[in-house]
């Protein structure tokens, strides 16, 4: 696996994806480097598919969250404002 495929799928994130082990003992890479990146990805997909007037404000909130996540120095670092800023 080369270095670009092992990176987190959230745009702008440079950390490696987490490895998860299933019940049979096989490992696979998760989509994100952390739980907050995976939550960000799921919210971004939902907002992109929903459209509507509230989607624009939710997209702005995601951009703010992306900046907070990009400021981390390691993947497991806590982002205190994450869940307060997260669009519904």
Short key terms for the protein model shown above:
88 residues, mainly alpha, two-stranded antiparallel sheet, 3 helices, 43% helix, 7% strand
List the SSEs and their pairings.
Layout: E1 19-21, E2 27-29, H1 35-50, H2 53-70, H3 82-85
Antiparallel strand pairs: 1-2
Helix pairs in contact: 1-2
Describe this entry's structure for a reader:
The chain has 88 residues and is mainly alpha-helical. The chain has helices at residues 35-50, 53-70, 82-85, and strands spanning 19-21, 27-29. It has a two-stranded antiparallel sheet. Strand 1 and strand 2 (27-29) form a beta hairpin. Helix 1 packs antiparallel against helix 2 (53-70). The radius of gyration is 14 Å and the shape is globular. The termini are far apart. The mean pLDDT is 87.
List SSEs in N-to-C order: EEHHH
- Rg: 14 Å
Which regions contain 5 or more consecutive residues with pLDDT less than 50? none
Structural class: mainly alpha
Q: What's the β-strand tally? A: 2
Helix content: 40-55%
Number of helices: 3
Beta-strand proportion: 5-15%
């Amino acid at each position: 696996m080369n270095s670009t495929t092992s990176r987190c799928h959230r745009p702008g994130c440079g950390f490696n994806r987490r490895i998860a082990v299933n019940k049979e003992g096989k490992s696979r890479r998760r989509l994100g480097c952390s739980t907050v990146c995976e939550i960000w990805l799921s919210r971004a997909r939902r907002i992109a598919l929903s459209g509507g007037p509230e989607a624009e404000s939710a997209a702005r909130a995601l951009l703010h969250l992306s900046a907070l996540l990009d400021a981390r120095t390691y993947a497991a670092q806590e982002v205190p404002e994450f869940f307060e800023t997260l669009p519904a």
